[in-house]
Specification:
homotrimer; alpha+beta; Jelly Rolls; 5-stranded antiparallel β-sheet; 3-stranded antiparallel β-sheet; 3 helices; elongated
Chain lengths: 139, 139, 139
């Protein structure tokens, strides 16, 4: 058994779900392992990592509207606004959705279901350069 | 050190929390390891994995009512309804609760607390055949 | 490659976010590894583990007020109250925030971002002795 670590950079275009399945699968394939465990870790407190439906595009719009209801931009609600009104909601959205993923690698493929894609969820209004740390254990 | 991977199939009976602690512990025991790390990954976007109180049955009813408030079935709220009014809420419930778990194995036992059980949370109204991918690293 | 497991005990002072970054980093450093994967697992159903902003103290107050809105203490809302009105909300808060974390170790350091701290989130009103299980794989 052996391990590999790495970083993937993702440039976002403001608040939205960015699919990263292909970039992640390419990094995994380059390590040449057949069986193991992949871990992804988002190194930010205002972006997150999510596995969701990759088929119907309406799903992503529905997720965005729903999370805006649960963690609204509402200047009256928060004490923390160092970086503007989308700062604190971005932290709360990251709490709701999570910032790390662990996915088994079986028979040379990530064990994702048929309809599962990996997404980086940008929670700030403006574009950001995001960094995901990766760890792969396997053989 | 070595690793093992596998799949567990769970037949659900529609929306509910299904305890899988025993099935998971049996799979772990069959690998014959004393110390390590177990990872569980739910291969679906409308079911999830959760660790919760395994003693009081009222807890499961309270969780169900609470999550229905946070991610309601409300046809007016969602654009995505390819598989019916419980389709999009199922995705949102999966986001809230998470789809993967990592649990250390110490002294031959999963490091679960006294009151912790592992549950598959079925979010669709109808029964489904669900698949959990497992990875165990250890010795 | 090798692995290490352990337990860290944290005494909380009732409902609040307790930073544990230093205690965790010290445990990791004591294992003498440069590259690997750290997993933290909270052995309770009414406390959780969270990575959040470690700079602005207002963030922690905003998180507390926000989560009280999403999982309120409301005796009329829950059937389960074996340990008082903060019992069931504590379970729900733990579901929202998660109870396990996986963080790559790269070049001798946890791959946390600049503003990321690790927190134990105590959800009960009274002080509790909490236990976090740790697993480190690496070399």
């Amino acid at each position: 058994m052996r391990q590999a670590t790495g970083l993937i950079g993702i440039d976002t275009h403001g608040r939205s779900l960015v699919e990263v399945t292909r970039a992640v699968a390419q990094w995994v394939a380059a390590q040449g392992m057949d069986e193991g465990l992949l871990t992804l870790f988002c190194r930010h407190t205002s972006a997150s990592l999510l596995i969701q439906e990759n088929a119907a595009p309406e799903v992503r719009g529905d997720i965005e509207r729903w999370i805006e209801r649960l963690a609204p931009e509402d200047p009256a609600a928060y004490a923390h606004d160092d970086e503007g009104p989308d700062d604190m909601p971005a932290h709360l959205r990251a709490i709701l959705t999570g910032i790390h993923l662990s996915i088994p690698l079986i028979d040379g493929r990530l064990a994702l279901g048929t309809w599962q894609g990996i997404y980086l969820f940008e929670h700030r209004r403006r574009p950001h350069a995001r960094s995901i740390a990766l760890h792969l254990l396997g053989e």
